[in-house]
Specification:
The complex is a heterodimer.
Chain A lengths: L3 E3 L4 E4 L4 E7 L4 E9 L5 E7 L4 E3 L2 E6 L4 E6 L8 E9 L6 E2 L3 E6 L1
Parallel strand pairs in A: 2-11
Antiparallel strand pairs in A: 1-3, 3-8, 4-5, 4-9, 6-7, 7-8, 9-10, 9-11
Chain B lengths: L4 E3 L2 E4 L5 E6 L6 E7 L5 E8 L2 E5 L7 E4 L6 E5 L8 E8 L10 E2 L3 E5 L1
The chains are: A mainly beta, B mainly beta.
């Protein structure tokens, strides 16, 4: 089973739509969780960390369910500039390298 | 804002040749990483480096790979004898000191390696 699994998409949504991405991780000892954003042929950039209590940053909300080993990202009021690949990233306990999912591609359409 | 830099942005080489990819991490960072991303695939961890030694490495990081911090600012990845399957984007990353992996890793813009 893959360390981190994501629906690859693509998700094509109109401007202003709400879109949700899901991710599951296989290692129950994972301790840190992130969403990164990657534009085409660019480096990954941290979008937000994910906490057990859930956290929000503007139009973005991240949720973590440790019991189900499930992470989600919700984007409200989608903008054209949100078009990118969203990477679910996990860190195992005792390690410090990042495990990436394959990413979910989002295209926001005018 | 401080950033990780990488050179060259694109490297083309012949199979069997040695390449050295260079990175300058953010100046007060102490943990350094190399990741790679084959076109259309996920980002994969190669190696982490702390206190002048490798702290972790993946199965990908075999004897053909080595890392070095030769002068206190550069962090290099050497591939001794490149193979076609080494063609990928190579990202360097760094983070501040911390006892876990929770500190944010900042990525450089990457070096695209093409092996012919």
């Amino acid at each position: 089973r893959k360390e981190v699994e994501q629906d690859p998409g693509p998700f094509n949504v109109p401007e202003g739509a709400t879109v949700a991405f899901n991710c599951t991780y296989s290692n129950s000892a994972s301790q840190s969780f992130f969403w990164y954003r990657q534009d085409c042929r660019k480096e990954p950039k941290l979008l937000m960390s994910v906490y057990s209590s859930g956290n929000e940053d503007g139009r973005f909300t991240a949720q973590l369910n440790r019991a189900s080993q499930y992470i989600s990202l919700l984007i409200r009021d989608s903008k054209l500039s949100d078009s990118a690949t969203y990477l679910c990233v996990v860190v195992r306990a005792g390690a410090n390298n990042l495990f990436f999912g394959t990413g979910t591609r989002l295209t926001v359409i005018p | 804002e401080p950033e990780v830099t990488q050179t060259p942005s694109h490297q083309v080489t012949q199979m069997g040749q040695e390449v050295i990819l260079r990175c300058v991490p953010i100046s007060n960072h102490l943990y350094f990483y190399w990741y790679r991303q084959i076109l259309g695939q996920k980002v994969e961890f190669l190696v982490s480096f702390y206190n002048n030694e490798i702290s972790e490495k993946s199965e990908i990081f075999d004897d053909q790979f080595s890392v070095e911090r030769p002068d206190g600012s550069n962090f290099t990845l050497k591939i001794r004898s490149t193979k076609l399957e080494d063609s990928a984007m190579y990202f360097c990353a760094s983070r501040t000191r911390g006892t876990s992996g929770t500190d944010t890793q900042y990525f450089g813009p990457g070096t695209r390696l093409t092996v012919l």
